[in-house]
Specification:
Layout lengths: L8 E5 L12 H13 L4 E4 L11 H15 L4 E4 L5 H13 L4 E5 L8 H10 L7 E5 L1 H4 L5 H8 L4 E6 L4 H10 L4 E3 L5 H6 L4 E3 L7 H12 L3 H18 L6 H9 L17 H10 L1
Parallel strand pairs: 1-2, 1-8, 2-3, 3-4, 4-5, 5-6, 6-7, 7-8
The protein binds ligand LZUJQKHR.
């Protein structure tokens, strides 16, 4: 199981590869996990936003958890289990635990517009699943605003071990780091280096599916006090990051992974669609 102490570094939310018909391509998935592990990642997230979690069936999730677990060894396995139904979230989190997950990444409940108290109770109820939880705050996707006081209450719960911060607000990040003693991870790839400078403990970064070793170097150079070298390495990654978020994630990422032959197709499941031809032209220049 993952603890506050071991939650840090470059954690990769892996894509879910599909074949031309849109079926799960478990062989490509397993090869991706092997490559990511050998690149030195500090954790893997299966079924995150980048893994197209809204479209993944339970049987597919089970197959991916089993495949990832068999490759990862001691490297932490985190599973995205969040939804806007508390009972369903508890059930999926308990399933993830039974299949060998070390922690769950749980997004704030979206769409049904719970009150701040409702959100607190949602996270409190997750204790029942008996798996460490990382709170995932991404308001531009969920439409849910988490007040700072709400974050503080949730982060005090014993089963909550960290926060994935995707608001993109550096002032807020600094407030969180100074008031919350648990690890805060960057979920806004462009701010990864800045977030380390503010006291963040690492990042859950879709971009790190590619050029993974360089992302790990940014983190390790920073940890070794080589701040300029870390920033220089991060600057080299910026064009990649900007391209990957020029259209909804993970479409550009899947396109690049397919171009580099890491996955067989850039197929997504509707309502997500492949990148436009304009973006593909920009991607070719980047390649
Ligand atoms: O899947 C994730 O976890 C991430 N998703 C974010 C998004 O798609 O908005 C980006 C971040 O890199 C990690």
């Amino acid at each position: 199981m993952l603890s506050e102490k071991s939650l840090h570094g470059v954690i990769v939310p892996i894509v879910t590869p599909f074949d031309q018909r849109g079926n799960l391509d478990i062989n490509s998935f397993q090869k991706l996990v092997v490559r990511l592990k050998s690149s030195g990642i500090h954790g893997l997230v299966v079924n995150g936003t980048t893994g197209e979690s809204p479209t993944i069936e339970d049987a597919e999730l089970e197959a991916m958890i089993a495949a990832a677990r068999s490759v990862l060894g001691e490297t932490p396995l985190i599973v995205g289990t969040g939804s806007n139904n508390t009972a369903a979230t508890i059930k999926k989190t308990a399933l993830a635990k039974a299949l060998g997950a070390d922690a769950a990444l749980v997004v704030t409940p979206y769409y049904n517009r719970p009150s701040q108290q409702g959100i607190i109770e949602h996270f409190r109820a997750l204790a029942e699943a008996d798996l460490p939880i990382i709170l995932y705050d991404i308001p531009h996707r969920t439409g849910v605003t988490l007040e700072l006081d709400t974050v503080k209450v949730i982060m005090k719960m014993d089963h909550i071990i960290g926060l994935k911060e995707s608001t993109g607000n550096i002032k807020r990040l600094m407030r969180l780091v100074s008031t919350i003693p648990k690890p805060i991870l960057c979920g806004e790839d462009e701010l990864f280096f800045a977030s380390l400078c503010c006291g963040g403990k690492g990042g859950i970064l879709a971009s790190a599916n590619l050029d993974t070793k360089q992302f790990v170097q940014v983190y390790e150079l920073f940890g070794a006090g080589k701040i300029d070298a870390s920033r220089e390495r991060f600057d080299q990654l910026l064009p990649l990051i900007l391209f990957l978020f020029s259209e909804p994630n993970p479409a550009p990422l899947k396109w690049l992974l397919a171009q580099r032959r890491h996955i067989r197709t850039d197929r997504l499941r509707l309502p997500m669609t492949s990148i436009s031809s304009d973006s593909a032209e920009k991607g070719v220049q980047l390649l």
